[in-house]
Amino acid sequence: MTHSTNDEIISYLAMDDGCRIALRTLQAGSSGSSTVLAIHALAMNGTMWADAARVLTPGLRVLALDCRGHGLSDKPKGPYSTARFAKDILNTLDTLQCEKAVVAGCSMGGTIALTFAGAYPERVAGLSVFDTTAWYGDDAPFRWEQRAQAALDGGMKALIGFQLERWFSPEFLAARCNVVDRALAIFLANDPIAYAETCRMLGRADERERIGRYKGPALIGVGEHDYATPLAMAEAIAALMPQARVQVFPQVRHFTPFEIPDAIGACVQQIADESRER
Predict the structure, then answer these.
(1) CA angle in degrees (0–180, nearest 5) for 52-56-59
(2) Which region holds residue 204: left if phi is over 0, alpha if psi is between -120 and 50, else beta?
(3) pLDDT of residue 32
């Protein structure tokens, strides 16, 4: 099933476990064009990539998933796993009959993109991830469970203050209320149970052993003032991937596709161009 909005086409794809996933076409591309598949951050949806997508060459096909438990996709019971989210990417590419895609991801979406690249490296033409990590640390299960419980006990509103200062620089919060409000509206629309299961998934995530299986071009971007997934985490990813390089974005925090979409789009374009030259 497919329907259109003013800015995008939304299709619904059935995964191999029956979960229905929403796929947003942000840019249709031209016949035979390369595909970019973008994966959003925790508690966001595929529209997180809309502004960055406008920077990309019109010939590219640009798609964005609503991950399971998020946005317009189904919200099945947990537990969730990064392997299952990565398989959703695989099912999506198979349904589209797309042999390879440039995979982009932010935050949670970056972790899922890394999982996919490690599990199915032959399906990745290029990798561009931002403000993310392959592993949140030894205490991650405890810290993510705290966040899950906060949402279950107080609803998504209970987390707004905590999230805003992590997502955006103070200057952006003051100057770009429209973008901030859009991100908040997406966040508040989340189902707390699905959110909690996704938090637990991130607490368990550890993709360090497999990501080196991907040998292609990779760009690991991070905001200079991102304390959620700081530079050290980006460098740790790059150290495990043969062709990975790190790019630091000055003066920004965690949600770079919202805060600096032109720069993020340019990075994705760069990896797409490199993937065609291989």
Answers:
(1) 145
(2) alpha
(3) 78
CA 243-245-248 angle, 5° bins? 170
20-37 residue pLDDT tens:
999 999 999 987 789 999
Comparing C-alpha atoms, which of 35, 5, 6 is closest to residue 22? Answer: 5
Q: Output helix, strand, coil percentages for the chain, rounded to the nearest 5.
A: 45, 20, 35
String of DSSP letters for 221-256? EEETT--SS-HHHHHHHHHTSTTEEEEEETT--S-H
| DSSP code for 169 | -
Backbone phi, psi, residue 136, to 5° = -90, -5
Rounded distance between C-alpha atoms, residue 91 and residue 105, angstroms: 17
Residue 206 and residue 7: Cα distance in Å, rounded? Answer: 36
| pLDDT single digits (tens) 85-107 | 999 999 999 999 999 999 999 99
Which residues touch 94 (CB under 8 Å, ≥6 apart)?
none
Q: Cα–Cα–Cα angle for 240, 241, 244, nearest 5°?
A: 125
pLDDT score for 150: 98
How far apart, in whole angstroms, are the C-alpha atoms of residue 10 and residue 20? 12
Question: What's the rounded Cα separation, in Å, for the pair 259 and 77?
Answer: 32
Q: How many CB atoms lie within 10 A of CB 174?
A: 10
CB-neighbour burial class of residue 204 (10 A; exposed 0-12, middle 13-18, buried 19+)? middle
Which amino acid belongs to residue 5? T
Residue pLDDT, tens place only, 110-139: 999 999 999 999 999 999 999 999 999 999
Given strand 124-130, what is the order of strands in its sheet? 2-4, 9-14, 20-27, 61-66, 35-39, 101-106, 124-130, 218-223, 244-249
